[in-house]
Amino acid sequence: MKNPSYPYPRIDLDSLPWRPKKMPHRTRPMTALLVFTGLNVVLVSTITPVYDFVCFHPYWERRRERRRVQREAAMTRGSNPT
């Protein structure tokens, strides 16, 4: 069945002289599963220290304090009827 909107001819891969092989390597599903699981274990075990470092960094405490001071200053400025 020809598609009129596709202007290029179809190429039969089996007729090519360098015909590609079906699978040039051996699959190892057990090795792949172990590597995948090991990688996940490493990532899960490192997420807690990274999370703690980012969330409890002193920068956030300074920022929170600075914003509190700014908010209080804005409230006192807004409440003065001068």
* Shape, per Cα inertia axes: elongated
Fraction in helix: 55-70%
Average pLDDT figure: 83
Number of strands: 0
Number of helices: 2
The oligomeric state is: single chain
Instruction: Kindly estimate the percentage of residues that lie in beta strands according to DSSP.
Output: under 5%
Structural class: mainly alpha
Q: SSE string, helix = H, strand = E? A: HH
- What does the main sheet amount to? none
Distance between the termini: 85 Å
Low-confidence segments, given as residue ranges, are none
Structural notes for this entry:
Helices cover 60% and strands 0% of the residues. It has two helices and no strands. The chain is mainly α.
Salient structural properties:
elongated, 82 residues, single chain, mainly alpha
Topology overview:
Elements: H1 29-55, H2 58-79
Condensed summary:
The chain is mainly α. It has helices spanning 29-55, 58-79.
